[in-house]
């Protein structure tokens, strides 16, 4: 069976709901990280990490909207708002700094009139924890994920 991710808040390929849109930069969203659940991680999985990345941001390097690492191997879901200070992150989990400049989830906020993709990815890792902190950038988290990913599962939503 393949490693998969799903969400009660998001549907792959659909428009991002207002609940996950940023509150600021001209938007009035709820800025809540989505509910995510995953199944069938590969043998040898020791922890999980999650990212939300916008490859369409006009920066030359995309935009990191969320990073969370050091999720335990027996975890299979996060509730809505877990990355937004609403509770639900397990002890030891670390949210990394987004391109909004702080740790925690930051929702969709593309420049007006632009159409962007938001890729939510769950990574199954071969280590118990990554050496990252709330000060670590999305690029640094991505660098560490590159060396420890056994499998990954993604869903993509759009917003404009």
Automatic annotation (TrEMBL):
It holds the Pfam family PBP. It comes from the Bacteria. InterPro entries: PEBP, PEBP-like_sf, YbhB_YbcL/LppC-like. This is Kinase inhibitor. It comes from Rouxiella badensis. The lineage of its organism: Bacteria, Pseudomonadati, Pseudomonadota, Gammaproteobacteria, Enterobacterales.
């Amino acid at each position: 069976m393949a490693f998969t991710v799903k969400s009660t808040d998001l549907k792959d390929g659909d428009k991002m709901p207002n609940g996950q849109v940023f509150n600021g930069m001209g938007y009035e969203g709820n800025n809540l990280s989505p509910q995510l659940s995953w199944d069938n991680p590969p043998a040898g999985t020791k922890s999980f990490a999650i990212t939300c990345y916008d490859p369409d941001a006009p920066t030359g390097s995309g935009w990191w909207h969320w990073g969370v690492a050091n999720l335990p191997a027996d975890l299979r879901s996060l509730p809505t708002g877990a990355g937004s200070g609403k509770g639900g992150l397990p002890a030891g989990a670390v949210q990394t700094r987004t391109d909004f400049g702080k740790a925690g989830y930051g929702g969709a906020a593309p420049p007006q009139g632009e159409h962007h993709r938001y890729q939510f990815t769950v990574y199954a890792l071969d280590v118990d924890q990554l050496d990252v902190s709330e000060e670590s950038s999305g690029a640094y988290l991505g660098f560490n994920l590159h060396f420890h990913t056994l499998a990954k599962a993604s869903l993509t939503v759009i917003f404009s």
